[in-house]
Amino acid sequence: MAIGTLVLNDELLAVGPSNFDEVLPLHKEREWSTDVVTYDGRSEQRNQLLEQPQRFWYLNYGYLEDAVRTKLIELWDRARGQYYEFLYTDRDDYECSFADCTYTPSAYEIATQLIKNYHLGETETWQEVKTRIVPGSVFAPIIKVDGVTMAEGVKFTLDDTTGIIDWYGGSDPLYSLGAGEVLTANYQFYYRVRFGSDVYVDLRDKFEFSGYSDLLIQEVMPQNA
Asked: For 133, which DSSP code?
């Protein structure tokens, strides 16, 4: 369940100060999931349950302008608390550069999933599938194969809601990404998120100022993460 393509940051920026997102007090968490089994003698077996960390954002704001407060409560109600998911821009992790977005298929592909490599070059690197891509009307993704820029609408189409590149050659027969060819990409992405509670606490003081504290936004994990 999702509220269309609603991006929380954009909705609040539309009614708040122009630097709202930059000055918004925020604390973030990244959580790996490990199952630790302890045996007699205190020996351990550790099982990794997730292939990537899950993100949590806690928004804190002491005083809200009435327009921002109204918009936030509206978004909360539209989301039905935890029920519907929406989109969120992490101001520290919202773009995949050519260096981080490299992919080399082992066989020919007619469709390729956009990914981002984290800590590329380290032993502990991991890949994350990116499914909600900022549309080209806002930030045009650049796709290259072996360093050559591929023309969108001629060599490929990109589904902004899945992050999947469909390859084709226009009027030519179906184009495919060749085995061993290096795909690099530059694009921006959103996180799929939901509110972390069904309860919204509206803080109002005697001077009619509003605020909120530790408003949890939680990443919706992809399948097979």
From this structure: B
Q: Are 217 and 11 in contact (CB under 8 A)?
A: no
Residues 122-126 have a mean pLDDT of 92
60 contacts 215 by C-beta, under 8 angstroms: yes
- The number of beta carbons lying within 10 Å of the beta carbon of residue 156 is 21
Pair 116, 125: CB distance under 8 Å: no
| Greatest CA separation for the chain | 70
CA angle, 3 then 71 then 87, to 5°: 35
Average pLDDT over residues 209-217: 84
Per-chain mean pLDDT for the chain: 89
Q: Using the predicted structure, report yes or no on whether residue 225 has a pLDDT greater than 70.
A: no
Q: What is the DSSP letter of 42?
A: G
- Cα separation, 30 vs 99, in Å, equals 23
How many Cα atoms occupy the beta-carbon half-sphere of 16 within 13 Å? Answer: 21
Burial category of 4 from C-beta neighbours within 10 Å (exposed 0-12, middle 13-18, buried 19 and up): exposed
pLDDT reported for residue 203: 80
Helix (H/G/I), strand (E/B), else coil: 120: coil
Can you tell me the distance from the alpha carbon of 31 to that of 58, in angstroms, rounded to the nearest whole number? Answer: 14
Average pLDDT estimate for 114-134: 94
H or E segment at 185? Answer: strand 183-188
Q: Which helix (H) or strand (E) holds 187?
A: strand 183-188
